[in-house]
Amino acid sequence: MVSRARRRFLRAASTFVGSLALAQPVAGQNSKSRLILLGIGGGPRPRKTNSASAQVIVVNDAAYVVDCGDGVARQLVLAGIRLPQLRHIFLTHQHSDHNADYGNLMLLAWTAGLKTRIDAWGPPPLQQMTAHFLAMNAYDIRTRIQDEGRVPLEPLIHVHELTDGGLVLDDDNVRVTAALVDHPPVAPAFAYRFDAPDRSIVISGDTRPSENLIKLANGADVLVHEALFPAGVDRLVAGVANAATLKQSILSHHTSAEDAGRVAKKAGVKTLVLSHFVPPDDPEITDRMWIEAASAHFDGKIVVGKDLLEL
Ligand SMILES: [Zn+2]
User: Fold this and answer.
1) Which pLDDT band holds residue 309 (cuts at 50, 70, 90)?
2) Cα-flanking dihedrals φ and ψ of residue 152, to 5°?
3) How far apart are CA 226 and CA 207, in angstroms?
4) Which residues contact 174 (CB under 8 A, 6 or more apart)?
5) Most exposed residue of 18, 144, 175, 260, measured as fewest CB within 10 angstroms of its CB?
6) DSSP states of 20-63 as a string?
7) How far, in Å, CA of 172 to CA of 87, rounded?
8) Which backbone phi and psi does 64 adopt, to 5 degrees?
9) 30-39, 95-104, 234-243: which has the highest mean pLDDT?
10) Which whole number is the average pLDDT over 189-207?
11) How far is the CA of 185 from the centre of ligand 1 (A)?
12) How far, in Å, is the centroid of ligand 1 from the Cα of 6?
C-alpha cells in the first residue's frame, strides 16, 4: 500500500520527470484499480437479462460500491469480491433502482464476516433510511450478535449526507469528487469521480445531459454514462396504464446514447461505457445500435456495458 504522503511525493516527482518511470506510483500489484459493472439495466423492475444499477471500484482490496440496486450483494459475490472488502458505499440518488438494496448490502456483508467500518455517502434522507433499516432488522441483528458472537453492526456504519458537489473523500486509495447532476424531480442527484493511482473513473448516475458532469469528467480515463434509446421508450411503456406520464418522465430526466456521446466528447474522456440502459431489455435494440448512436459525436472507445463486465 502506498501512503498518502508517498503518493504526494510521487505526484510531485512525476511533475519533474514528465511521463517517465515515476509517473506511475510504485506500489503493490493491487493498487491497479478494478472497475466492475454489477448491474447495467435501468429501472427497478426485476429482469431475467440484467441487474439493477450498481458498480464497484476496487483499489488495494478496498471495495467502493456505487449504487445499490436489487441484488447488489449477490452481484458482488458473482464478481468475486469478498463482501467483507466493502469499505464505502455511494448512492447517486434516491430512486429504488439505485438504492433498493442499500441496507441489505451492509447487513449481508456483515453476515458474511464484515467487522470493519463502512462509510455511506449520498443524498438525504440517507441518515433516516439507515436508521429505519437497522430498526426494521433489529431482531435478526440482535440475534446474530448474541447467538453467533458477531460485533454490533450499527457502530460500524458511518453515514454522510451530501447536499452539494465537491470533494467527498481522499484516502490512501482514491480521491472521490461529487457533482450535482440533473435528474428531476429527484434532487440532489450526484455523479462521482474516482481518481485512483492508475486512472480516473466517473460514474454519471442518472441525469439528463449535464454541464456539471462534463466538468467533473474532464479528461477522465473512463466515463460510465447512463444511456437511453428514445425509439425504444414507446415499446417500453406500451400496455402500462400511466404510459404517457411515464414516457414523459423517462425522456425528461435521462440522456440518449447519442447525447452521452456528446457529453463524452465535450469532457474529453478516453473511454465511454454505456450503462443504465433504458429500455433495459429490448431485444430489438442491439449492441451495434447503442454504439452507433453514441459514436455519432464521440470517436473514443465505446463499451456497451454488461453485468459483471470488468474494465
Ligand atoms: Zn433515477
Assistant:
1) very high
2) -55, 140
3) 8
4) 33, 57, 59, 64, 194, 195, 196
5) 18
6) SGGGS----GGGS-EEEEEE-B-SSS--SS-PPSEEEEEETTEE
7) 13
8) -110, 105
9) 95-104
10) 97
11) 9
12) 39
* HSE (side-chain half, CA atoms, 13 Å) at 187: 8
Give residue-wise pLDDT tens across range 283-294: 999 999 999 999
- Tell me phi and psi for residue 31, to 5 degrees: -70, -10
Q: What residues are labeled active site?
A: 97
Average the pLDDT over 169-189 and give the result.
97
Cα 138 from Cα 46, distance rounded (Å)? 27
Contact 56, 63 (CB under 8 A): yes
The per-type count for the chain, helices as H runs and strands as E runs, is: 11, 13
Q: How confident is the model at residue 30 (pLDDT cuts 50, 70, 90)?
A: low
Reported as a pLDDT band with limits 50, 70 and 90, residue 26 is: very low
Q: Is the pLDDT of residue 24 over 50?
A: no
Amino acid at 169: L
Could you count the other beta carbons within 10 Å of the beta carbon of residue 215? 14
- Cα of 254 vs centre of ligand 1, distance in Å, is 8
For residue 114, the one-letter residue type is L
Considering only CA atoms, which of 191, 171, 194, 173 is closest in space to residue 183?
Answer: 191
What type of residue is 305?
G
- Phi and psi (nearest 5°) for 247? -60, -45
Please count the CA atoms within 13 angstroms of the CA of 189 that sit on its side-chain side. 23
* Count of residues making up the chain: 311
- Across the strands, what pairs with 190? 180
Q: How confident is the model over 46-63, as pLDDT tens digits?
A: 999 999 999 999 999 999
Q: Is the peptide bond before 44 cis (omega within 30 degrees of 0)?
A: no
Q: Which set of grid coordinates corresponds to residue 105?
A: 448490502
CA–centroid distance, 247 to ligand 1, in Å, is: 14
Backbone angles phi, psi at 264, to 5 degrees: -60, -40
